[in-house]
Amino acid sequence: MSERLLVLVRHGQSEWNLKNLFTGWRDPDLTPQGVEEAKRAGKRLKEEGYQFDLAFTSDLSRAQKTLDLALAELGQTGLPVVKNLALNERDYGDLSGLNKDDARAKWGEEQVHVWRRSYDVPPPGGESLKDTVARALPYYVTEILPKVLQGNRVLVAAHGNSLRALIMVLEKHTPESIMKRELATGAPVVYRLKADSTVESVVDLAG
C-alpha cells in the first residue's frame, strides 16, 4: 500500500538565529542547541516508526547538517539525498548579517516589520515570501511531489520560509495566513497525501 508520506523539518537553531541576525542565504553553522534539535527530530521520527526512501534539502549547511543528524538517529545515513538551492531560505538581501534591532534602528520599526511580515514586499536586494514561493513551489511540484505520489516516503529538511512555500499549498493558506504560520526549529511536520496530492492528515511532532 502506498504511504504517500511527506515530512518537513526546519533546520535546528543556527548561530545567527541565536544572535538575532537576518540570515537568508548566508551559511552559519548550527549551535549546540541546534544540533540537539536536529537529533531530537530524528529521535521523534524513529519513536513514531517513520522510515524514508529519499530526502531533499537546501544548498545551505544548516539544513544539510540537520538532515544528516536526523538520519543518523533514524539509522538511515545512506539514504539518497537531493540538494537544491530552490529550497534555500528566503534571501534577505541587504539585511543579511544585520542584527534585527540594528536594522530597526536604521530603517525604522515599521519598515522592517513590513519586510519581515508582508507577503510581497522584498527587503532591498532580497526576496519577499512571494518570491520565495515562486522559487520553491515549482521545485516541489516537479521534483518532490511526484516522488511522494509514487509512494516514496520523503523527508525534506529546509528553512522557515522555503517550507512555508510548500505549506502554503499543502494547508491551503492565503498570503495573509501563511505569514502567521510558525515553524519551530527541529520540529517535524508529518503529512500523508491523497492520490490527488491534497492532504489526508497532518501531525505536528513539535515538543
Automatic annotation (TrEMBL):
Q: Which Pfam families match?
A: His_Phos_1
Pathway(s) it belongs to: Carbohydrate degradation; glycolysis; pyruvate from D-glyceraldehyde 3-phosphate: step 3/5
Residues at the catalytic site: H11 (tele-phosphohistidine intermediate), E89 (proton donor/acceptor)
Q: Where is this site: Transition state stabilizer?
A: H159
The EC category is isomerase
User: Which Enzyme Commission number(s) are listed?
Assistant: 5.4.2.11
* SMART domains reported in the protein's UniProt record: PGAM
Q: Which domain of life is it from?
A: Bacteria
Give the protein's biological function.
Catalyzes the interconversion of 2-phosphoglycerate and 3-phosphoglycerate.
Sequence similarity: Belongs to the phosphoglycerate mutase family. BPG-dependent PGAM subfamily.
What this protein is called in its record is: 2,3-bisphosphoglycerate-dependent phosphoglycerate mutase
Q: Which organism is it from?
A: Ancylobacter moscoviensis
